[in-house]
Amino acid sequence: MAFQKSGFGFLLVILVLLHIISVIGGKSYYEILQVSKGASDEQIKRAYRKLALKYHPDKNAGNEEANKRFAEINNAYEVLSDREKRNIYDRYGEEGLKQSAANGGRGAGMNIQDIFSSFFGGGPTEEEERIVKGDDVVVELDATLEDLYMGGSLKVWREKNILKPAPGKRRCNCRNEVYHKQIAPGMFQQMTEQVCEQCPNVKFEREGYFLTVDIEKGMQDGQEVVFYEDGEPITDGEPGDLKFKIRTAPHDRFKREGNDLHITVTISLLQALVGFEKTIKHLDDHLVEVGTKGITKPKQVKKITGEGMPQHFSLKKGDMYVTYEVLFPSSLTEEQKTKIKEVL
User: Fold this and answer.
1) For 68, left (φ over 0), alpha (ψ -120 to 50), or beta?
2) For the segment 209-235, what is each residue's pLDDT rounded down to a tens digit?
3) Backbone angles phi, psi at 63, to 5 degrees
4) Which of 8, 102, 202, 314 is most buried, judged by most C-beta within 10 A?
5) How far apart are CA 278 and CA 265, in angstroms?
6) Hey, CA dihedral for 281, 284, 289, 295, is it positive or negative?
7) 227 and 209 Cβ atoms separated by less than 8 Å
């Protein structure tokens, strides 16, 4: 009879665990956003922005499949961008989120540790160790206005220290273990002892390789493209991050201010007086028509709506501001002076 009870209890544990696994193994929000389960908050945010722009209803009018994908992307991001919801989802899946919502957001109401505790009288606990991380490397990267307007990529040579095996052993994975020592009847003193393992020795070697840095449309100065764990390595820890900080390179015709573009167009005195028609070659080579049938004053500015820089992860664009410079003749003949006086 005792054997039957024990066998039933073990079977119950297996069934409960299989239920949890089936819940967790449902539809993956990580797959929807095309990121790994260990993705950082910044990686999740960047993935969401790319996909949300691709499947935005304004860009896919009448496409039911795209609208469905857009809804899934938003739902996945809503969960994975919230630390508490993500923790519940990682443990219990979508069912856990539903239970949490039903409980007023107080959590799913159970965890694997509770199950082990109820059947086996508690489980092992482990002190959470602080993870040591290497230094981040920040590099300013000049991007052309063309790449920032259309999107592009840059090849960058990267050199860094790489951990390589070396002869010998070393102390590693050191941790503090706490134990209690009896110092008198009924009296105990808490003691802390550092315990280290013996690991193979390592050394640093310098290596170089090319990286491809993607420049997204509309990126602003100061925005970063992050290569996670590609910074400086550290022994017995995680490498830092490599961060490319975007900086707009000077352009021979355009000047950027936020999402707007500024350009100076030179016209003759005759064109300023009688009107003119000109075209401006844009960053992607399409032509923008400018001109007037009336008088154009020196330093006069014309605003062309929607011909500026694209806004980052948006379908909108800034504006273009054209400043007219009037080129005056260096001198006039007497005959020319007479004719001008007659006209004016």
Assistant:
1) alpha
2) 999 999 999 999 999 998 888 999 988
3) -95, 100
4) 202
5) 9
6) negative
7) no
